[in-house]
Amino acid sequence: MMVFVYGGSGSGKSAFAEKRISELNNGNSLYYLATMHVFDNEDLERIKRHKKLRLGKGFITLEKSKNVGDILDELNKEKSDILLECMSNLVANEMFDEEIYKENDAGSNNDNIIGDDKIKLIFKKIKKDILKLKEGSENLVIVSNNIFEDGYTYDKSVEDYKRLLGDINRYITMISDEVWEVVAGIPIRVK
Amino acid sequence: MIFVIGGYSQGKLDYIKKRFMSEKINIIDAAELIIDAKSEYFEISSAQIVIINNINIAIADIIKNGKSPEDAIKKMIKDYPDAVIISDEVGNGIVPVDKNERLIREKIGRVQCLLANEAEEVIRVICGIGQRIK
């Protein structure tokens, strides 16, 4: 079973994703695959809040900010349940060099412009990693962000990021069994 | 309490006005109210249907004033248990570069979760169309 959970900032998507994978879990090892690259105290606070949410729910935390498909080599051969959080961080990490990304806070500096060919390669690579996770797990829940509705146009690197994340989200919904949008803590099933 | 959520200019207020067409309504702009009052408390005169609009702006102002938006909103729900509370969805964009903006945006999301949790009914409005999600 593959489930996609989508929502905006502070929408309660994490809490729902944890609830959903716990419901699906039937005794398999339950992994929380964290993709956020830690930069500062604000990130640490966020992690603290998320860890508190997961406390006592039986999650084993794995941290991988890139190349998530490789995580399966570290796990046992038996099938497991994986909650990946979140795709928006993973795509940013794959797309922007971490050091430059750090210096420029949101990765919006023009130095970060990467060619269309490279973006295509990153798209292919992330798709491959997602498929690997799907095939290597019994239940996979992926969380992603709605970053698309503020109506602003940003510089090229951010626009490239928006397009790539949009494409990845669409790819995931295509291969998912369930798709949920979370609004003000309320899950709405859209597939 | 009825909680209404949706993007900017999606017709949330019109949707509610139409629904309560035949009743006496009192529309409060929470944005103006909080700026005038410089307080986290809401002074609202009673009417048959109290509609509190733009609560997201009030939540941001309360945070900027260093007060707890959760406390203010809980008090508001207690004082006006039958109100219709309307909020813009503000969390569906690129993460703001400014730290305060980022924190306020996330907090508005969390307070919206609180409002939805307390509400008997939650309606999401897109392009003028309301969908009851609770």
Textual characterization of the structure:
The complex is a heterodimer of chains A (191) and B (134). Chain A is of the alpha/beta class and 191 residues long. Chain A has 7 helices and 7 strands, in the order βαβαβαβαααβαββ. Chain A has one domain: Rossmann fold. Chain B is built from 5 helices and 6 strands. In chain B, helix 2 runs parallel beside helix 3, helix 3 packs across helix 5 (99-118) and helix 4 (69-79) packs parallel to helix 5 (99-118). The relative contact order of chain B is 0.24. Chain B has helices at residues 12-19, 30-37, 55-64, 69-79, 99-118, and strands at residues 2-6, 25-29, 49-53, 84-88, 121-126, 129-132. Chain B is globular, with a radius of gyration of 14 Å. Chain A binds chain B through residues 7-12, 42, 105-106, 108, 146-152, 154, 158, 162, 183-186, 188, and chain B through 3, 5, 7-8, 89-95, 97, 99, 102-103, 105-110, 112-113, 115-117, 122, 124, 133-134.
Backbone shape of chain B: globular
Helix content of chain A: 40-55%
CATH architectural designation of chain B: 3-Layer(aba) Sandwich
Task: Give the assembly state of these chains.
Answer: heterodimer
List the helices and strands of chain A in order. Answer: EHEHEHEHHHEHEE
Under CATH, the topology of chain B can be stated as Rossmann fold
Which strand order spans the largest sheet of chain B, edge to edge or round the barrel?
A: 2-3-4-1-5-6
The Cα radius of gyration of chain B reads: 14 Å
Total domain modules of chain B: 1
SSE order of chain B, one letter for each helix or strand? EHEHEHHEHEE
| Shape label of chain A | globular
Count of structural domains of chain A:
1
Low-pLDDT ranges of chain A = none
Under CATH, the homologous superfamily of chain A reads P-loop containing nucleotide triphosphate hydrolases
Continuous helix count of chain B: 5
**Largest two-chain interface:** A-B, 25 and 30 residues
Distance between the termini of chain B: 12 Å
